[in-house]
Sequence to fold (386 residues):
Amino acid sequence: MTSSARTSALLAASCVGALAFAAGVPAASASASPNAAPTADDRPSVRVIGGTDANLSTTPWFLQFAPKNGGGGASLCGATKIKKRWAVTAAHCVSTPSGIAKVGAGKSFVLANPSTRNEGTRYYLDYIVVNPKYNPNSAANLNDIALLRMSKKLPGGTLKPNADKSQTVAGTPSAVYGFGERIADKPSSVATVLQEGQVQDLIGPNDPACGSYGKNYHPSTQLCAGLPAGGIDACQGDSGGPLVATVGGKLRLTGIVSSGYGCALADYPGIYTRVSTYAKWMSKYTTGKFNITSNCKGSSCKVKRGNQRKIKLKNLTPNKGSYKVWANKKKLVSIHNAKGVVWGNEAAKAKVKVTTKKKKCVKVKVKASGTPKKVFKISTNSNNRC
Fold:
């Protein structure tokens, strides 16, 4: 592989970028310097190399994800269904220096375990949560994880995220999935059917020595997987897709395709987001008795004086529950219907109205029975989001 084979860590930047299984490229064929430290524009690409056609009956949780970030077409990424309306993917698929992927009808969507790439029913997103510690401008690509919520339930089964931080250990057999390029640097080689690559956890949860990455690898938030001799790996376009393994006798989502240097090189394995590090963060948003939503696009919105935003609280249980809505800067907004009781399977709405002329960032907090607290940000009288 030549130095031109190296790609940006934003592996889903083009609609042809994808995770793919291709002919293995031995490390000796790479002319790029193996000791060069990856930078923001010179980091491992992500596609599955050396894989085989996946058995779709065993992957009901796999999603082809098509984030739409700008005015062009949608990109190609992967995602994993963890709840009927929730999926997890790589943050770099949805959050780029040019902005957050768009939600709503006709915007970003997923396909549920499609038999053929780009074919099937489109399920559109209505909400995206990017890990707050992710920085799209950072070369480190840390905290590369985001949650996607669909506007309606997805068909098929789900895959539970691994919450055991002691797993997986070195040598654990794992599998990575995606539709990416099957031949390095050939966009025309993207897979028509889902590909599966059999790899393994190379160093376990505590060892900081992942191949030749040196200090560019962070074991607390990243997972190192591949084969000791190279030959099978994830690559461009597989970003956001699942790395799965058996933990405690059950199949679990252990990693999210994130980054890497080259493709299938012996000294540069794939780097995945370590799912167990973020298990509690994911649960905070995906579990609870109430479904709490806002008509803000994303977790932040711009509101001028005299205008308002609505917060809807849907009770998902047959029993009554209560809620409360409040703001950290009470003098800047007024809240109508700030607290109350919602009977089973019914809904209530709170309205947050901007009353100030100042340009401020207001945090609106919502707590409901049996549901983690949610925070919405309102940027008052400003064109910039919080």
User: Anything to note?
Assistant: Residues 1-47 have pLDDT under 50 and may be disordered. Residues 11-28+39-286 form a domain with the Thrombin, subunit H fold (CATH 2.40.10.10). The chain has two domains: 11-28+39-286, 288-380.
